[in-house]
Amino acid sequence: MLRWQQWNRKAQKWLLALTLIGMIAAVPLGVVRVQMEQTSKEVEFVFNYRNLVQIASYHAHPRAFLNEHLKQMKNAGITTMAVFESTLAELSTAGRLTLYNGTQAATLQGKLPAVGENYTYLLFTGPEEEAAIRPMIEETFARLDIPFGSWSFGGRNGMVIQTPVEDAILKTMPPDPMALKQLKDAGFQILPRLSDRVRPYDPDATERMLAGFAELGVKRILFDGNSVKGYNDNAELKSLEHFGGLLNRYGIGVVSIENMRVPQAGLSRLALLTDYNIVRLYSLSDGDAAAMSPDAIADRFLLAAKDRNIRMFYMNGAPTRSLEQGGVVHPLDNIYKAIGSEEGAVKRLASFGFSSGSAGHFDVKTYGWQTPVKGVVALGAIALIALLVGAFVPVLLIPAFILGLLGSAGIYLVLSGSLLEQALALGASISAPTLAMVWAVNRVRNRTDGARRAVGGTDWTIAARSGAFGGKESDAEEGRPVRWMFDGLSAGKRFGLALTIFAVTSLISLAAVPFVVGLLNDVTYSLVLEQFRGVSLLHLAPIALTAVYLFLYTGASVVGSAKRILKMPITVLWVAVAGVLGAVGMYYMSRTGNAGTATSLELFFRNTLESTFGVRPRFKEFLLSHPLFIFGLFVALRYRVAWVLLIVGSIGQLSMVDTFAHIHTPLHISAIRVVLGLGLGAVIGIVIIAAWQIVEGAWKRWGPRNLKW
Q1: What is the mean pLDDT of the chain?
Q2: 486 torsion bin: left (phi>0), alpha (psi -120 to 50), beta (else)
Q3: pTM summary value
C-alpha cells in the first residue's frame, strides 16, 4: 500500500505535467480559430418578399404600394429579398393571375356549373404575365400528370386544370420569375428559399433553376421546411451529392437558421459538400418586428453579429388586422427605423467593423499538424480528468488515467472522433472548476482547522478535532466543543487571503478553457452544425462535487462524516430548506443553455451593460457567484458556518468555463466577458465585505454581550 501511495505521488506530478502540455498544445488551435473568425465581416439585411406582397394586397393599389416600399427598403439599408417557391395562391395574391373554382367560372360566364366536374380555372392578368408564368405552370402539372388546357374569358387568356382549387394551390412551383426580375432591376440581391417538396428530385430541372439563379447573381440559398432540397431522395438518387455539386459549380452557398427547434435535415451534409460555404442567419419574427422598439431590434442585431457570429438578418413583417386602428397594419415603418435611422442597425454594426453587403462564409483552413496536436490536447484532458478522480479517491488516480486512455481509444475507433472530443471537453470542463474549488476549500481548511492534503495527493494530516462539516462523534463526549470561530487572522489578512484564493481558484478553473477551445475547434461547432453536448451536466456536476467535498472531506474521515450526516434528525426546517434549494436548483437549471428566459429587469440591465462595456458579462458571475465567493472566503476564515458559501462560488467558476463552451461566440468576446465578470464581481465582493465589517463592528459594540459563538 505504501508503494502504491508513492506511485500515486509520482503519477500526480506526471499528470499535472501532461495537463500543462495539453494546455500549451491547444494554443495554436485557438489561434487558427481566431484567424477564421476574422475572415467574415460583412453582414446582410434580408426581408421576406412574400410578406411584402401580402401587405401590398391589402391596399387599394397593390403594385404602387409594393414599388414604393421597395424604394424605402433600399434606402433603409435592406439589401436582399427572400423569395419563396411559388404556388397558384401566391401568384394570385401577387396579381399575376385570378383563380376560380368550377362554380365561380360558370357564374362568371353566365352558365350553370358542369355536372361531375370540379376543376381549377385561372385567367392571366395580361400577356406579360402569361408569357412568364404559363410555362412554369404547365411544366409543374405535366410533371404531376394532371391534365390541363386553355381557357379564356373577357379577352384574357387562361387555363383550366383538371383538379380542385384546394388541391391545385398546394402544388409547389419555382419562384415567381417576374418577381425575380423586378427585384434584380430594383438593385436587390435575391435569396431563394427552396424546399424539398418537389419530388422526385429532378437533376435537369434543378440545374436549370440554379443556372438561372447564377445569372441573377444569387450567392446563397435558404431552405424552407424541415429538410434541404434533395434530402428525402438521397438514399435512392444520391440527390444531396448532386445538388451540392451544382451549388459548387455555380458558386452558390447555403444558409443556416439560428435556434431552430430541429435542424434542417441534410444541412450538415450539404455544408460539408460545399466546403462549408455557409453563413448563419438570425430571423426576426412577425411579432417582434411589430412589438419591439427600433432600438431593441438594432441592439438584438448587433448582439447577434458581435457575440454569435451571425452574418445575415432576416426580417418578417406580416399584415395584421387592428380594431383599435380600424384597418390592416404592418411593421414596415418600425423596421425601417430599426435598420436605417441614425441609431439603426446598419450604423451600429458599422461602428463595430461590420459593413453592410453580402454575408460571406468563414475561410476555413486546415493544416496537417492539427490532428497530432489535438491528440496531445486530448491526452492532457484525460490527465486532468484523472486528477479529479484522484482528488476524491486517491487510490484510483493511476487506474483512472489508464481507463481514460483505453476508453478514449475505444470511443474513437468504434463510435466517432467527434463524440470523443465532446466527451473529453466535457470532462475537462467539469474537472478544472471542481479541482479549483477543492483547492480553495483546502486553503481555507489550512488557515483554520489545519493542514490538508494537496489535490490528487495521498498524504493526510488531520488536525481537525471536530467541525460542522466533519469531525469525530466522540468530540463532545471528550469535552472538545465544536469550533465555530477561528481567531488569529486580522481582517486585513483575511481580506488579502480571500482575494488571493479567489484569483488562484479562477486561474485553475480557466485551465479547462484551452481544452474546450482545442478539442472543439472544428468549424462545425462555430456554425452550430454540431453542438457541445452535456451543458446541463457541466452546470450541475461541479456544484454537486464541491458540496460533497465540503461536507464529506473536511472532517476526520469520509465515512465518519457520511455517518454523521445520515444520523442527523430530519426536522421541518430541513425539509423547508430542501424545498427552497430544490426550487432554486430548478430555476438555475432552467436558465442554462439557449432555452432560458430573462426577466424584463434583467433585460434592462443587460442592455445597460452592453451599451456601457460593449460586451455583457454574465449576471450569475459578477452579480451573484463571484461576490459571494469572495465574501464567503473572507468570512469563512473566521466563521465555520460560512464555508457553505464556497458552494455558491462554484457556480461562477463553472460559468466561466461554460462561456467558452459557446463555440459560436468569438473567442475574444468570451475572454472579455470572463474578465469583466471577474473584475466587476471582485468590486461588488469588496463592497459586501466592507458592509459586513461595518455591521459586524456595530454588532460587537452594541449587540448582546452574552452571545456565544
Answers
A1: 87
A2: beta
A3: 0.84
